[in-house]
Amino acid sequence: MTAEAPHGAEAPSELVQLLTPEGERVEHPDYDIDLTPEEIRGLYRDLVLVRRVDLEAVALQRQGELGIWASLLGQEAAQIGSGRALTEADMAFPTYREHGVAWCRGVDPVNLLGMFRGVNHGGWDPAEHNFHLYTIVIGSQTLHAVGYAMGVQRDSAEAATIVYFGDGATSQGDVNESFIWASVFNAPVVFFCQNNQWAISEPLEKQSRIPLYRRASGFGFPGVRVDGNDVFACLAVTRKALADARSGQGPMLIEAFTYRMGAHTTADDPTRYRVAGELEAWKLKDPIERVRAYMFKNQIADQDFFDAIDAEADELGGDVRKRCLALPDPEPLAIFDHVYAEPHGLMDSERAEFATYLEGFEG
Amino acid sequence: MTTLTLAKALNEGMRKAMEDDPKVLIMGEDVGKLGGVFRVTDGLQKDFGEQRVIDTPLAESGIIGTAIGLALRGYRPVCEIQFDGFVFPAADQIITQLAKMPLRSLGKLKLPVVVRIPCGGGIGAVEHHSESPEAYFTHTGGLRVVACSNPVDAYTMIQQAIRCDDPVVFFEPKRRYWEKAEVDTSADSAGWTPFDRAQIVRPGTDLTLIAYGPMVKICLEAAAAAEEDGRSLEVVDLRSLNPLDVARVTESVRRTGRCVVVHEAPVYNGFGAEVAARVTEKCFYNLEAPVLRVGGPSTPYPPSRLEDYYLPDLDRVLDAVDRAFRF
């Protein structure tokens, strides 16, 4: 028996796809979707703008303005498709790469940069956006999502929870425990695995000998593999999974089959572990180009529209850059803030001692 | 006044908390029908239902991780870790997530999660059932760490821990579960001692014995024995390890001039080191002798036939007291 080669140029046959890389619309018996021209233009705009934010962040890192950045390049469709499937009441738990989902949840992109610039560990209010903080320890957030979903159950709320993680995370104990919890408690949670083929330098073969979506059946719930570079398919599949979860049908695993075009983070060098041909093959499946081709062919937008979006993206990129550079460093005594919700003797004494020490430098 | 064992006092405390606040949940392995392996949650599922007293799958990381999610949704989970040595699979969720999420959110998120851990030895158990992991958690900013030593504190402190908006690691001395005391369950909680406060449980003038959890009783016995030798020992029950009630501890040592810290955990890098360092720094000119520590050797917990040698007992505490008086 050999493991399937999961990141070849050919898409596996079980893939749910509604829009081919050439921009041809295809039908699927279970997951078809009816989108208005305006909705399609909206999705295209999202894709372009989040790519622009991402490129700007990479540039800022290269110029020393961010300590590190985890690029979403290539994964825009998976994130926008799933992110736009969420209702306001749904709750999302991201890793540290879900900049596109954050965009869909209304989180200011500059707030994402703050963490990578080192001014905070996450500057947005999760409750305001129903978008949790980025989680860096791999897979931890899957359990938080299931617990949150158990709370949704207890509240009898009309909501679901979605949790994002990568292919590497599926090897973690927490992710497997979260599958068990979700299954036995029938929790309204959608597991959204962005299989971008690489866990830093380790290919999927180091994580699994079966396609990841098939793991769900071993835990007692359905799994599906969707073309992660197809925003229509990602939207359709996630929308159905969330609706099923909300109506009490329990969890679902979505494997978005995609590709991380850049490095894991700006700290690594993909040329050391993967061949150029692989990258070239995936470039032909670009999530933005196929929507653009489809829109052109079907006269959903004209050149003026595309030019306007490009201009908006440039403006957004410039704005994000400007506001990132203006992010102030926190005050030194902020180290002691928010560690505890209630008064805490050790914090009080350490803060006071540190303040006295700092005052020694004044005057 | 009601006579309660420490286990029953915890049970009554949790029952009261669940009655007062519908958001309080109990979760863990075997906490439902069985009532926990020590029966601390006995009868709660029968009275509050499976939605509030949750028998979980057998996975500690999952218990704490899902409790975090429930807390994010507005619930107040009280998690039971079955035995001290089993907390380590959950240590990642406790240390990297539970402790740090409020800070990461700049205070926008609160995680009122209680992690109950039956701790310590003395019950003749097998490996991994008799440990004292408190120092791992006191070393982690963002957690509160407390230990009860008697039924009265068990009853009040568990309720205070549940009401607290911070995550609390709550140590229960398992060899004291069956010990009884009179508990006033009708007293107004406004009059309870805050749970981050140390308490002088026996006043004295010649030396301060500092302990928490299972060792408080040993220290009280040592103080009674020392009295026959004409020595007056004060016993301080720390109750809270993080934060440490430095003021109350140092006030006592300034008066007595001598200090011995007693715990079951290994002395090396144990919590006693923190107490000794703080006392030395604050009471240097009042001390007649160095602060001494009594605890376990730096070994894994031994087979139970040897645990009487490992655990501090009356004689070892009195031996340290003698040494303190010889300086």
Automatic annotation (TrEMBL), chain A:
InterPro entries: Alpha-ketoacid_DH_E1_comp, DH_E1, PdhA/BkdA, THDP-binding. It holds the Pfam family E1_dh. Keywords: Oxidoreductase, Pyruvate, Thiamine pyrophosphate. GO terms for biological process: branched-chain amino acid catabolic process. Its EC number is 1.2.4.1. GO terms for molecular function: magnesium ion binding; pyruvate dehydrogenase (acetyl-transferring) activity. SUPFAM superfamilies: Thiamin diphosphate-binding fold (THDP-binding). Residues 48-315 form the Dehydrogenase E1 component domain. Its cofactor is thiamine diphosphate. It comes from the Bacteria. NCBIfam families: PDH_E1_alph_x (TIGR03181). PANTHER family: 2-OXOISOVALERATE DEHYDROGENASE SUBUNIT ALPHA, MITOCHONDRIAL. This is Pyruvate dehydrogenase E1 component alpha subunit. It comes from Streptosporangium album.
UniProtKB/TrEMBL annotation, chain B:
Keywords: Oxidoreductase, Pyruvate, Thiamine pyrophosphate. CDD domains: TPP_PYR_E1-PDHc-beta_like. It comes from the Bacteria. It is an enzyme of class 1 (oxidoreductase). Residues 4-179 form the Transketolase-like pyrimidine-binding domain. GO terms for molecular function: magnesium ion binding; pyruvate dehydrogenase (acetyl-transferring) activity. Its EC number is 1.2.4.1. SUPFAM superfamilies: Thiamin diphosphate-binding fold (THDP-binding) (SSF52518), TK C-terminal domain-like (SSF52922). Pfam families: Transket_pyr, Transketolase_C. Its cofactor is thiamine diphosphate. This is Pyruvate dehydrogenase E1 component beta subunit.
